[in-house]
Amino acid sequence: MIRIYALLIFTFLFNILAIANSESSTSNKDSLLGIWDNKELQDTARFDAFSRFIWEEHLFSKSDSAFYYIDILLKEAKEKNMDSHVIGGLNLMGIGYDFRGNYAKAIDYYTKSMKLSESQGSKLGVAMTSNNIGLIYAEQENYAKAIEYYKKSLEIKLELKDSIGFARSYNNLGLSYFGQGKYEEALSNYLKSLEINELINDDSGIAMSLNNAGNVYFERKQYDLAKEYYEKSLIHEKKINSKRGISTSLMSIALVLYEEGNYKRALVMAEDAFKLAEEVDGITEKRDAAKALWKIYKKQSRFADALQMHEMFIEIRDTILSEENQREIIQKEFQYNFEKEQALKKAEHEAELKRQEVLSTAEKERQTTIIYAISGGLVLVVIFSMVVLNRFKDSQKKNRIIQHQKEVVEAKSQEIMDSINYAKRLQDAILPPSKLVKSFLLESFIIYKPKDIVAGDFYFMDVVEENGKKYIYYVAADCTGHGVPGAMVSIVGANGLKRCIQEFNLRKPGKILDKLAEIVAENFSQSEERIRDGMDLALCCLEMENDRAVRVHYSGANNPLWIVNPNRKVLPKQAIPFKQGDGFEMKANKQAIGYSEDNNFFDTQTIELEPGDTLYTFSDGFSDQFGGETLAERQSGGKKYKSANFKKLLLSLYYEDMDSQKTRIIETFENWKGDLDQLDDVCIIGVRV
Q1: I need a surface site. Which of 124, 423, 528, 544 has the fewest CB within 10 A?
Q2: pLDDT at 595
């Protein structure tokens, strides 16, 4: 699936900001500096104004002057023992380094802020710093750790009734769920954030929530909705003249235009986004804009420009995710936790000494008290025994009720499991037996790993003999959802495919998918509410001559066909070569089978086969699986396997027979997943001709 990098928000809530009600509420930079220089004013107003001056005029665009002014702020705040402003200054410094990709430095300042906040009992300081540390981990794609810090921040902000603060926290939680591929949770948090931001008329927050909600719709390939949200976000970013936000919104719109094939307009948007990112020196904005430009230049055959942007994207991405950055971040956190643990142990030791001293003084009084206590205790035992007897009788009665309820629940659970197992038998009935598959596709494999007992993924096969030729149809399909709902859709899909081939006598894969889309839409249109369920799939038809596949006719609904053969000299006309070489991709139509606002006809692509061609069709369950190569990666929440790595795996297996390939793919999946949950159903079909 296409990955859209969500906008990370540097939420900075000065724990002393009441700027709107102070003399520093003006946005004029000279006025803000004038307030700072006026020593007769209250220090709180001066520091508020100076902090805002740094934030608005320098932090995101002029790094050298920003750090210079923050040093001045910190020095005077320390001299005057104004801890709240020291906390704010340390966070400003951390944000400045964070924005420029120096995460080790940023974590250093955030850690200092966290120590001071905890020692001074500043809840808002702890909340602010936890949020900013969460942003660091999110940028490193350690989403589990980021969520841990965001939730800590959100808990405090809810307690303090900080509307802006918990709006930002909901937004940031959404970003991390988005990074984990949990799009429903992400969208839910974005919409909570949007609702709060609209209530408090926070244009900055509204813009960010709209942009991030648009990312979810983009990931779902609902491009019209995505563009609508991005364009609304751009309006608010322009309203507050946020160059950084404008850059992000322009880049997002450019990617939608790219997917729609409007490369000319996409290029204008992406180039404007890149210029703004360079102006503010935003490392993540430059990375995302460079990636978008690389893709657009490549489509326009501007290969020199594409190469330049690709190299820039790789360089920035590797800087952000560098091992040195990650190592220093972890080291800083371990150091902070170690020092915190040592302080706790020291406090516990001192408390124990005081306790011993108190016990020694109280020992004599205790001896006297024991005598009275024993006498009184005997009386209490008698009373307690009577109470226990009554309670025991009541308990027996309640236990009988609980046992009955338990039996009812177990019976209901068994009924549900029986229904699910029956659904599995129904689904198994639509799947072609492995013997049948092997009898027609001698060199092939099918990997089928449902996430639950029943699956949304399914595979299909049918054979037609006419006009002296044999046509072998096979499908790898991915229905909306998994479990019982997905299985219900899969049965509709499999039966529909059978009808298209046997009842309607359709032969071209594109025509078959057109008719299947009608059948699925008709089935779901009978509901009073419009059902948007459907399926992505790849349909292949092998045309056989003398029991040898001479060509394949292919049509896809979002799912491509990959063909690997290092010995191939000529590629089909519409083939997209693998960047690694030795194979190519046949693109699918960008629409699913089922409900759609704008249905188009599916294409049929015909490829003349050569000896050694190995065809792969699949769902996205393997490439979307979270895991890691090491135990440490998996324990931190893991990362997606991704389509590029799946492609590399298949290329590396070419010289192995199909049974060995199947074994190696399953082993790779299990090793990558480790102890983490399987996220989705997995279906992979490999055929060698």
Answers
A1: 528
A2: 63
